[in-house]
Amino acid sequence: MNELFRNLGFSTTSTTVTSSTATSIGENCPVNPLIGDIVDIGNFRLRLELLIAEGGFGYVFQAKEIKTNKIYAIKRMISSDNESKNEIENEIDILERIQTHKHIMEFYGYTIIKPNIYYLLWYVFFEFMKTLSFNLNLFLSSEHCGSGSLKDFKLPIQDKQLLNRIIFQVTLALEKLHLMNIIHRDIKIENILIDSNGFLKLCDFGSATDKSYKPDHHWTPMQRSLLEDE
């Protein structure tokens, strides 16, 4: 454990993994009928091995690349109407613009399995498909951070040096995004992952935007309300 979290300063005595988190990887993970399915993303063929998390966004799976046995994270999302379709398209557009950064989950690409299913890949893929049909079932793929998120660990609040390291790494990620005019809009401990080298990785760009507004005293309550709903 000391080796795993050397970059953050975690120790075996002050940090323990909780067993009740939805993102825990092990025998208690939920069983999903998609486990074992093969997903092709670009030049990669991956087998879904484990359900890591699920929510209103869809599912996140641990997947193994069949040829190399490398582990990846795949996010599966379903679009049932124009609104959800636009949200998925927006997330993909944002992810494609983000340049590689040590503290941001690396996005490799996506594929459309059926007219309403998306798969997004983190860690090894990037096959961009612009033609998105009305019903989207998408798999997003990304880098797999096998140590969980900050939510999974009991952080020693009194350790100010450790907290400073966490804030510093997250700030570096946000600085990179802001230089690209991207606003994350959903910073929380569930979206800050820890990779196998102990580095923090900012993830989940479903709420991100590149739009900025400067409300003034001329704005009506209706305008402000509509902006909050975006």
From TrEMBL:
A Pfam family annotated for this UniProt entry: Pkinase
Keyword set includes Protease: no
InterPro entries: Kinase-like_dom_sf, Prot_kinase_dom, Ser/Thr_kinase_AS
Keyword Repeat belongs to the record: no
Superkingdom of the organism of origin: Eukaryota
GO BP of this protein: positive regulation of Notch signaling pathway; regulation of clathrin-dependent endocytosis
Gene3D superfamilies: Transferase(Phosphotransferase) domain 1 (1.10.510.10)
Gene Ontology cellular component terms for the protein in this record: cytoplasm
Entry protein name: Protein kinase domain-containing protein
